[in-house]
Structure formats: C-alpha cells, structure tokens
Design goal:
mainly alpha; Arc Repressor Mutant, subunit A; Response regulator transcription factor
C-alpha cells in the first residue's frame, strides 16, 4: 500500500481539522439518515453507522469524534457487526458495506 496516500488521508482528517471539513460533516449527515434502514444481516442502526464510517476509511478515534461516542464503544460496535456478519476482519466489513450497497452514493 502506498503510505504517502494513507499519510495524506490521515493528515487531511486529523481531529483538529474536522471543523474545517464541511464535506465530511455533510457526508456524515447523509449516512445517518441512510444508515438506520434495516439490513439483511440485521445490524442495528448504530452498528451500521459505525460500519459505514469504517468503510469510508476513518479510524476508531475519528469515528468516535464524529459519532460523539467513546473509542471503546466504536470497537464494540465494530466487533458486534463482525459477529453478526460472520466476518473476521475490519477490511471484510468495509468490503461487505460497499458490495451490499449500504453506503449512500456520493
């Protein structure tokens, strides 16, 4: 993986700069409205929201900040979603979200 790309991505999404990223805030509001629909795997609304933010490439700390929950709660939601979908890795969860069409189109 190209570390320059991931470093640039994380630099652009540092917690100090979230107030200056209205596009990300708008995206979060779109995901919140889209995310509470039932899914075939029966993820809870909060699990789906966290999974969608994970699929966008956000770190647990970034997700916790945006969703106004603790990092521990983020980890718990990701773990619960993985168990519900019978997956083992976070990357598999991201792939599932994209392939199932559970991420609102941009």
């Amino acid at each position: 993986m190209d570390h320059l790309v991931t470093d640039a991505h994380h630099a652009a999404l540092s917690l100090d700069d979230f107030h200056a990223v209205p596009k990300l805030r708008r995206r979060l509001s779109e995901i919140r409205t889209y995310g509470y629909r039932p899914t075939p795997a029966r993820l809870t609304g909060q699990q789906l929201l966290i999974a969608q933010l994970t699929a966008l490439g956000l770190a647990n700390k970034e997700i916790a900040y945006l969703a106004d929950i603790s990092e521990t709660t983020v980890k718990a939601h990701i773990s619960a979603a993985l168990r519900s979908l019978n997956l083992k890795r976070r990357t598999q969860l991201c792939r599932y979200i994209f392939e199932a069409g559970l991420l609102a189109a941009e």
